[in-house]
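Wed. Picked up where I left off yesterday with fumarylacetoacetase. The coffee machine is broken again, so keeping this brief.
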Amino acid sequence: MSTEPTPVHFFSHGSTMMLGEESTSADYWKKCGAEALANGIKGVVMMGAHWDCSGLNKIQVTMNPNPNKSPVAYVHPSKYVDYELAPDLELGQKCLDLLNKDGFDASANKRFDWIHDTYLILIRMFPKKCPPTTIISANSRFDPHFHMRVGAALRPLREQGYLIIGTGGAVHNLYRNLWAPMLNYSDNFAQLTPPGDWAVDFRQAVEDAIVNNSGPALRRAITRLMKHPKFREAHATDDHFMAALFVAGAVGSEQDKGVYGKLGAETWELTNMCNSQFTFGEWSKGASPDKVDEIPSTHKNGLLFHVGSQGILRASRRAIDWFKSIYENFPFHPHDRDEYVTPGEIVKLEIGIWAMGVEYEAGESMKVVHDNSPDLQREFKEDNEFASLASHRRHQVSIENSIRPKNFTAKMAFKISVSMDSPFTLDNIPFGVISTESDPKPRCATALGDYAIDLAAYWKDRTYTQLDGNKSLYDIFNQGSLNEFAALDPSIRSDVRKHLAIELAARNVPKTCAIPLKSVKMHRPMAIGGFVDFLCSLEHCKNCAPLAGGAVSNNFYYAPSVYNGRTSSIVLSSEPVQRPHGIIYDPVTKEPTFCPSKKMDFELEMGIFVSKPVPIGERISIEDAANHIFGFVLLNDWSARDLQAFEMNPLGPFHSKGFGTSSRHGSLL
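Structure written out below (tokens, as returned):
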């Protein structure tokens, strides 16, 4: 047995009908089980969603030598009653030792009977015989960091040949499901209506977090999903998401950097329950063939495989029409799933409707063939975004060496991956000013993931009809400040932001407009004509007042305190801040002395960029204030406290608060 760490699975066990009926998820579980047995696993460690114990630091491990199985509702007993469980007490003791060594209050539970959330998976993965298995409880506090630590504590078992599985749910809110099909013993996977947007949105967030992050970044990404705006709709209770945290701990160490999760299968049921199946890592050898010539001829029909030069295949098995789907459930797969393929390699994506988005090498084209039939084929030579055939079958896709059409543009082939750690997502679309070595002229840009999007280049050959006069967005963005864009009507700015988000999501932004952030130089985003600093936080005032020998001033409760700052000393966070010289009271002689400041600090604050000036003598209402705000930025407000103590009386701070204000990246959110 290799000492290479075993893969880790996060499975969504779904309803009990995932045992009662066949599905693509069930097929995937069986495949994973076959691969595990082919690689000689010693046993299985599982955390489910239906067993938890109480106590601040408590965790339990199954040590019942003869466990029963809890009944499974709506499933015929023949599916599970005779399946013999195989509790592994030796493995259970290993788990107890590892957990207690890591500071948990771990104890044995000698009476626990197994529940369908775990043995359902075991039956599907290992239908002939249950491997030696130990089950770990959750903790009823459902602390995400706690459960991640549990997984991390058990990670050494992966290097000893044990398989770790978390079984919960990607989207699992029993209160939002439509139960009629299951209660009526009808087709549970029929999906008579599409799932809610909230379910689809969170399901996509789960996949994005898993496939785009590895190592410690994966732990952070999975944890942040619990703060996702749709999390509480997707999970009315936290129990079914703890397995994901457990898995993130088991495959989220520094040693696991580069081990990304992959979506292996997915089954929607009860309208809004999404059962996504993810695997992290690979076996040294697989139970299923890796090459076309390894597949028995009787199994080749209907498989999608690539038989040309190396390329990138993106495919969709999304139904053209909801009721025309050839699958047993809603076949939701995003269009941005890329897979690199080499000649003869099996493509790990099923295609039921059409093939999309292949990135070609020079002199190549794509051919789509239905079910290996040469009579039903089409070559991709049009200047469009997809190649398809009308029949609802599976396709064989090949990239062949042929003359590349002159009018072909693979505009959907450029993908910007955005990790959960990135502040620059499609929900952000910040604005800033950049330059590069190849083009030192400052111009406006936005950011997505690790790329800056050159807005001047993007708008150069495009028109935008909502602008007055002869100005174009190219003219507005092709300059070294955002002032002119900021002065536009808020509705226009909002429309531009939405347009960019849509175009970036659809991959319609040319690759030439995307520049790696590490290659750009940031500039101050706006020409700043004035800078004022407001003291708005009551807690901050309460903390500062005693230092000045007094209480919070009464006028604070009527209007925030404010002073004028110095615009010339505003710098980017990448630029140095000089230690100021000034007059202080000598700590020994108490006499005024000119010297460098010895008491510098900074306060983290939020900066607001005002987009529309207010003419002298005029006022704006509170209701209209939002129309004058362009964006926000994090900034550090630097202070020289010893200089400030000398300057405060009678007119307030001057140089002590005016020598440096640094803003992050110079990008506006």
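Quick read: Residues 286-366, 368-372, 380-413 have pLDDT under 50 and may be disordered.
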